[in-house]
Specification:
157 residues; two-stranded antiparallel sheet; alpha+beta; elongated; 5 strands
């Protein structure tokens, strides 16, 4: 983000905070540094991009870049023969929230592959990756086939 864009974002956020703070009479002792704390949170989110909030099995929260979560799932999908991951959506689930995940993935599938047994392999691959890399189980893994592709001919065939 450019410096000008950052200043514009900060100015806009300051205006929103001022408007909100003007709507009630806060206790000054409770709001010391509130504006700067809000701006710091927003700046962190802008710097690292969207994030997904999850929790360890003991309920300790952690945040991971949404792009990293999508990469973990997409790599697990791509590891299945004849399947290529497209879009990935992960929604925190479980109790406390974030100790599990609901996953939706769209895939492209090579022509001639039986979907039902392959879907189970995809689910197993994604579930294992989530446990191994994030320490959280998947409560659901929904798969939508978005495209079918023909296998490329090799020089031998």
């Amino acid at each position: 983000m450019s410096d000008d864009a950052a200043w514009e974002t900060d100015d806009h956020l300051r205006g929103v905070i001022d408007e909100y703070m003007g709507a009630f009479e806060p206790d000054p002792a409770e709001t010391v540094g509130l504006r700067e704390r809000i701006l710091d949170i927003v700046r962190e989110d802008l710097a690292r991009g969207p994030s997904t909030r999850l929790s360890t099995p003991r309920g300790n929260p952690f945040t991971i870049a949404t792009a990293a979560v999508r990469t973990i799932v997409r790599d697990a999908v791509d590891a299945v023969d004849g399947i290529r991951g497209r879009s990935v959506s992960l929604t925190p689930a479980g109790e406390p929230e974030g100790t599990a995940a609901e996953v939706e993935v769209t895939v492209a599938m090579r022509a001639g592959i039986a979907f039902a047994p392959t879907a189970e392999v995809i689910r197993e691959s994604v579930a294992a990756a989530l446990i191994e890399q994030l320490g959280i189980p998947a409560t659901t893994i929904d798969i939508t086939v978005e495209d079918v592709y023909e296998a490329e001919e090799t020089e031998d065939g």
